[in-house]
Amino acid sequence: MSLHRGGFKTVSVFMSLCLILVVILSACSNESDRATGSPSVTSTTSVITLAPPPTNDLLKVPPISASAEITGGTVTGAKIREADTLHYYKTTNPASFEYLSLLYAASLTRRNPLTLTLDKNAAESWTSDSATSTVTFKLKAGLKWSDGQPITADDYVWTYEQARKAENGWFYAIGAIYQADKSGSEGIESYIALDSSTLVIKLHSTTFDMVTRADVIEPLPKHIWEKLDWNNPAKNPEINKPSVVSGPWLLKEWKQGEYITFAHNPNSSIYPVPALENLTLKIVADSQVALQKVKNNELDFYNPEATNFDSFENLSNVQNYRWTPGRATFHYVGFNFRKPYLQDKNLRQALAYATDRPQLLASTRADLGRLQYSDVLPWHPYYQEPSQKFAYEPNKAFDLLKAAGYNASSTKLIAPNGTDVSTLKLAYNAPSPVYSSFAQSLKQSYKQLGINLELQEFDFSSYVKLLQNPNSNYDLFLGGWQTDYDPENFGEIWANVPDLNSGAYRNDKLLDLYRTARLEQDADKRKVLIAQIQQIEAIDLPYIYLYAELGTIVINKRVGGVAQTYGGVSANLYTDWYLLKP
What we know:
Elements: E1 74-79, H1 94-103, E2 109-111, E3 118-120, E4 123-129, E5 134-139, H2 153-163, H3 173-176, E6 188-195, E7 198-203, H4 210-214, H5 222-225, E8 249-255, E9 259-264, E10 278-283, H6 287-295, E11 301-302, H7 309-313, E12 318-323, E13 329-335, H8 345-353, H9 357-364, E14 369-371, H10 394-403, E15 407-408, E16 413-414, E17 423-429, H11 433-447, E18 452-458, H12 460-468, E19 476-482, H13 491-495, H14 508-519, H15 523-540, E20 543-549, E21 551-556, E22 559-560, E23 578-579
Parallel strand pairs: 1-10, 17-18, 17-19
Antiparallel strand pairs: 2-3, 4-5, 5-7, 6-7, 8-9, 9-10, 11-21, 12-21, 13-19, 13-20, 14-20, 15-16, 22-23
């Protein structure tokens, strides 16, 4: 899997599996349930007519105005959540990674923000050998740290050796690095430098995304760090006050809990030197505080919640931007498949017919999301329109249940085997205005089927424990995922019960399709497999898929160079932003 961290970089494998946004933050399993051996499903098992990729008119790169001032100045944004450290290998905090992506930007590859394909970053070229599961990278010439010293293959190898040590506690090592004692482990087996510009990385297994999975190390400057303590900020000032970095920005000042200011790095050799002199991110208490600061020109940009977006976009001094994220959050209603009655597809489909998805989207703001029907984002190049969408039609839900042998009325629902399913328990994390609204809406909708939805609110910690315990008593749950760039990897979710697949959904054909897609090197053949996957998920309903969120932000009109891409407006790490002449 890959993870987007501030810029449009790629980091590998299990990282995004461990990141469950919105309401769930499960611990990653130490073991993988992925089977070995030859999968039983191939791309020739059925005929799929592939539609062209969806038209995406939200991706835009503006031309630079000839009259624009493109040097100097400071741009200030705001965030609600603060970082916990500036040590790349000591955090799982998204805010920390946002800061770190500006300081350290020497990953070997990055995603093209307009196509999602892999582009060069620190690597000039690479080759992969599927027979040996090996990827060889050649570094670009002229790479340098901010102090002018060269960035070499030695920096990558040294950082890898520190990151792989168990005593150094890198959270993502479990997925990134092969561990012989862990079932299903398939990460890096060896990481060596042939010379100062050549890296040879051997993986334990061959998959379509070998290059991405080999690109796990963000190098730290060996000549600075090698004599310092890796773990202790009191003994190593570089941990929270890095002085030598690879990214386009230098740390100028960090007053934790108040603001962080970056200055442009004149020695930036991978990304362009930023046109701006400084970039500041302030911490604010909430969106109402941010609203006043944006209105008063104290803040140049802010990403408000969907429910507050209209308050910001109506300000006369800002431009609002929207884009289709390469890694977007989508929401769903999950099922506890340990309950025998929820294994009946007829009941799941009836509940889907009774779920007013457009209304749920409208309750946040309808034009800031897109309805979703499978694990593939509705704007992804691999997206295929499902043959059945289960639009909101309560009458069809009733007809389906009756045809399947249910005793259905407006007050009671009895399954064909006599099980009373008139009461279902819906669990969700609170406080959450969005999910509380969803719960109330679903409660009203499901009444039409004779189902009383019993709402169960849990604080974050209790909710995680509920979903991780196979013996917990609930029927439905509200959840949200942040997708990977590559939909081929979502099969890892279904393969890991209960850490990722909380409801214990099982479909062997679906798992085999995902496994086959991950092993398939030909992109066109993978697209056929992903088309089959989408049809299965849309009809079998492991979730009732609700909608995917668009990326949104408001930016002061004095700022130019803002591109809307799959990587968002900061895909190029703010190096393309500039100030317009007054």
